[in-house]
Design a protein that fits this description.
Number of strands of chain A: 18
Largest interface: A-B, 94 and 94 residues
Number of helices of chain A: 17
Shape of chain A: globular
Distance between the termini of chain A: 19 Å
Oligomer: homodimer
CATH architecture of the largest domain in chain A: 2-Layer Sandwich
Strand content of chain A: 15-25%
C-alpha cells in the first residue's frame, strides 16, 4: 500500500468505477503480478488492471496520477531483476491483452504492434512474409517488456538490441498524456531521441503501449555448429578473430564445461563437456559456406573439435539446447534460487575476467554454470544458492559484486541485457558516477510524483 | 549580447582572466564562428574560446553558467541549419584544437577520440589497422558536430548513423560538471540511454568533448557502379527490391537528371543525365560478385543501363562525383543560396513523394536538383534561390514546408540527418505533437538557465 491508504482506496474505487471487472484484487492475481522470474522477494500490487488499449492505459494513469498511486506495467513476468515488483503497492497494469499486430509494412520491412505481443507471436504472424524480428531471447516475453529492459539475446552480434530494432513508440506518461516518439523513417535528426530514452527505462518514465519495429529478411541460408575447446581462452580467441574477419555471424554463444554438463543432463544429450561455442552463420548460400570454412579453420587453429548441423532438425535442436541453458543450469540444484550475472565487457577482456571470477567462484564452492553472448562480450553465470542456507545468498551477491567491479574496471557494464530492476541498483553509482544524478533529474522532470515503477533502477 | 550586458562583460573578463589569449574577440574570428554553411543569417558570438581539454570546457562553462552567458560549441562550421549561430551572443567554444585520438582498441574494434577530430583524420590514422569509421558525409566535419546532429551519410544503409557508432561520451553539462555516459561494452541495460540523449541534441543539453566509437573492418572487396534509369520510380523500385534481397549494399544513392547535369557540368564528365543510382557493394569477394549479378538483373528488369567501375581509380572517382553533388548543385546558379531539404520517409513512399514535390517545384519554376540516401528513404532537394530577388526565399521555404508535411503524413521526419537547428524549428510541433513538450521538460531539467545553444531545435 502507498503512504496514504485512504488515497489508495479512493484511487481503486475510481478505477473500479471506470473499468469494472477488469480491475482485479484477488490474492492469486496480485501474487502473480508481484514478481517476475527472479530471486527477489515478491511485492504484490494492490490491484491488477487488464488494459486493452492505449486509451485504457491513459485513463488508468490519469486516475492513479490524481491519487498518487504507483503503477507498474506487467507483461509475461519474465524479467529477472525484480522489475515488476510493486514495491509500494499500487496498480499493476497487465499488458497481455494488448496483443494486436496493428500493421505489417512488408515493402518497408517494418511492423507496428501493441506492447503485449510476444516476439514468438509476431514471428509466427510474419512467417509468410519472409521477414522476422531478430530478437532471440530465451523466454516468452512481450515487446513492451523487451523494450523496457533493452533486451537483446543471441542475435545481437548481427542485428543489435531492442534499441536498434525500434523506430517509434506510443507511450503513456505519468499523468495519462499519450505521446508518439519516432516514426517509420529509418533515421531522424529531429530533436532528442525520446524513443531511446524510453527503451531501457524499465517503465519508470512512461508505459510503452505500441511499438514500430524494424524487421529483417529471413536469410537464404544458415549453417550452425558446436565447437568444443580445451579452454575458454581458446574459445574467446576464436571469437575475437571471427569478429575481426567480418564473418556473417548470426549467433556466437559460449558455454562452459559445467553448463554443457547441465545441458546434457537436462536434455539427455551427450555433447562434449568442455568450453563450447555454438555458432550460427547466416546470409547468402555462397557466403555462408565460405565463412564456415574460414571459421572452421580459425577454430581448429585453437584446438577445437567441430560438430556441424547437417539438417534443419539438427539446427533447430542446437538452438533449443542453447535456450535450455538457464533451466538446465537451475536443475543442477533443484529447489535452489539462481542469481544470473549479466556483465558485458569489451570482448578482448572476456578471458581474463572469466578466469578471475571463476577462480573466486571455485574458491567459494558455488555452483555457477556459464553461458553467454560472447560476440557482444556479455555472459551469464547462473549462481545457484539455497535461500534457506545461512550465508549462501550473501556469498553469491558478493561474487556478483566482485564481477561487476571487474567489468567496470575494464570499461564494461553491470548489465548487458537484463536491466537494473532491484538487483543492480547498488552498482549504478559506481558505474555512472555523476551521470546517475542526471538520470534522476530526468526522472523527476518526466514523473515528478514518482508514481511510475518507483524504486527501480535507482532511488530518488 | 545577452540580456544583461554587464553580466556578459563580467563573464568575458573572468574568461579572459582564466584563459588569456585563447579568448578572442576580433571581428573576423567572431564572424567566422557566427554561422555554418547555411542560408541562415549569421549571428556572431561575443567571444570565441579555443578549448584544448575537457577541463577547459568545464571551467569555461562554469564561468558562463555563473554569469548566464550563452554557449555554443563550434567544430568545422559545416552544419547547414544554423546550429552554430550564436543567437543570443555569448561564447563560442571552438573545439578544433581538441583533435587528439586518445586510444585505438584494435582487438575490440573501438576508438576514443576528442570531439574536434574529423572523420577524415580518424580514418587516416586507422589506415594500417584494417579498421575504419563508416560515417561517410560529404563535408569535413568534427566528431562532436557529427554526433550532435546525429549525422549519417552514404553508408547508413549498411552501418547506421552516428547514434549507432557511439558507445560512450564525455559530456560537460551546463554548470561545468563532467559526466561520462556509456562505456566500451557493445550493449548495456544499465539505466537511461544518456548517450543517445546527447547524440542529436545539437549542443542544447551539454557539450560533447570525447567519444568512444565503434569501428568496423575494411571489407575484403567492394564493387561499385552507376545505373541509369528512365525514371525515379524505376530507380526506387530497384532499391526496394535490393533491400528486400538483403544484398551486401554499402551505399545506394539516388541522383535525378538535373543533379546529373549539374555533376557533369561541375566535374567535366559525360554521364547519362537521367535518374541514376550510384551503388556500392562490399563484403567478401564471392558475396560481392554474386550480389552484383543479382543487382544487375534487378536494375535491368527496371530498364537500367549500367556502368560498373573497373578499377580502384574508377571507384574513387565515382564516390568523389557523388560527394561533389551539393557543390555541383549550387553551381547551377552562382551567387545564389541553397536550402537543402532533408526529409526521410519509408522507402516505399519515396516515388510518390518525390513526384508530388517535383511537380510543385516545376510549377514554381525553382531549380532544385535531387540527391540522397535512398536506401534510408532520405533525400535532399537543393533548392536554389537568390536572396536579393523578392519572393524567392519565401517560395523555397513554402516548398520545403509542403515537402515536410507530405513526409509527416507518411510516417517520415522533417530531417533525416541535417538536424533541426533554426531551419526546421517550425516543423517540430507538427512532427512531435505533445512529445515536443517532453523534450522541453528535459531541456529545462538539464539546462535550467537555458545557456546551452539557446533557441535551437525549439524555443522554450
Amino acid at each position: 500500500m502507498n503512504d496514504t491508504a485512504s488515497d489508495s482506496r479512493a484511487a481503486l474505487d475510481a478505477l473500479r468505477a471506470r473499468f469494472g471487472a477488469r480491475i482485479e484484487t484477488g490474492a492469486a492475481v496480485r501474487d502473480h503480478h508481484g514478481g517476475g522470474d527472479s530471486w527477489h522477494p515478491a511485492a504484490p500490487p494492490d490491484a491488477v488492471f487488464y488494459a486493452e488499449t492505449t486509451a485504457d492505459v491513459s485513463e488508468a494513469l490519469a486516475i492513479c496520477h490524481a491519487h498518487d498511486l504507483p503503477v507498474v506495467a506487467f507483461g509475461h513476468g519474465s524479467s529477472i531483476e525484480g522489475q515488476t515488483q510493486a514495491l509500494r503497492g499500487g496498480l499493476s497494469i497487465d499488458m497481455t491483452r494488448m496483443d494486436q499486430i496493428l500493421r505489417i509494412g512488408a515493402e518497408d520491412m517494418d511492423a507496428t504492434v501493441q506492447a503485449g505481443v510476444t516476439r514468438q507471436a509476431l514471428n509466427e504472424h510474419l512467417r509468410d512474409t519472409g521477414l522476422f524480428l531478430p530478437i532471440d531471447v530465451g523466454t516468452h516475453a512481450t515487446m513492451g517488456g523487451l523494450a523496457s529492459t533493452r533486451a537483446s539475446g543471441t542475435m545481437t552480434v548481427r542485428h543489435g538490441t531492442m534499441r536498434d530494432r525500434i523506430l517509434g513508440l506510443t507511450v503513456v506518461l505519468a499523468d495519462g498524456e499519450v505521446i508518439r516518439t519516432g516514426g517509420r523513417a529509418r533515421k531522424s535528426s529531429a530533436g532528442y531521441d525520446l524513443t531511446g530514452l524510453f527503451v531501457g527505462a524499465e517503465g519508470t518514465l512512461g508505459i510503452i503501449t505500441e511499438l514500430t519495429l524494424r524487421l529483417t529478411g529471413i536469410p537464404d541460408a544458415a549453417r550452425a555448429g558446436m565447437f568444443s575447446f580445451d579452454s575458454i581462452a581458446a574459445a574467446t580467441a576464436t571469437v575475437v578473430e571471427a569478429l575481426q574477419c567480418g564473418l556473417c555471424l548470426n549467433r556466437i554463444e559460449l558455454l562452459d564445461a559445467l553448463q554443457m554438463q547441465a545441458i546434457n543432463s537436462y536434455n539427455g544429450t551427450d555433447h562434449p563437456e568442455t568450453a563450447t561455442l555454438m555458432i550460427d552463420l547466416a546470409g547468402a548460400e555462397a557466403q555462408v559456406d565460405g565463412d564456415l570454412d574460414i571459421l572452421h579453420d580459425l577454430a581448429r587453429d585453437h584446438g577445437a573439435r567441430a560438430r556441424l548441423c547437417a539438417t534443419p532438425e539438427d539446427y533447430a535442436a542446437l538452438w533449443a539446447l542453447r535456450h535450455s541453458a538457464l533451466y538446465a543450469a537451475r536443475s543442477l540444484r533443484p529447489g535452489c534460487l539462481s542469481l544470473s550475472t549479466d556483465v558485458c565487457v569489451p570482448v578482448s577482456e572476456l578471458p581474463g575476467i572469466i578466469a578471475a571470477i571463476q577462480a573466486e567462484i571455485d574458491a567459494e564452492g558455488v555452483i555457477a554454470p556459464l553461458h553467454g553472448h560472447v560476440g557482444d562480450g556479455n555472459f551469464h553465470l547462473v549462481m545457484l544458492f539455497d535461500p534457506e542456507a545461512p550465508g549462501e545468498q550473501d556469498k553469491v551477491r558478493r561474487l556478483n559484486a566482485r564481477l561487476v567491479q571487474m567489468a567496470l574496471d575494464h570499461g564494461g557494464t553491470a548489465t548487458g541485457e537484463h536491466g537494473v530492476g532491484l538487483g543492480k541498483k547498488i552498482f549504478m553509482q559506481a558505474q555512472h558516477g555523476p551521470a546517475l544524478d542526471l538520470m534522476k533529474r530526468i526522472k523527476r522532470a518526466v514523473d515528478p510524483k514518482d508514481i511510475l515503477n518507483p524504486g527501480k533502477i535507482f532511488d530518488l
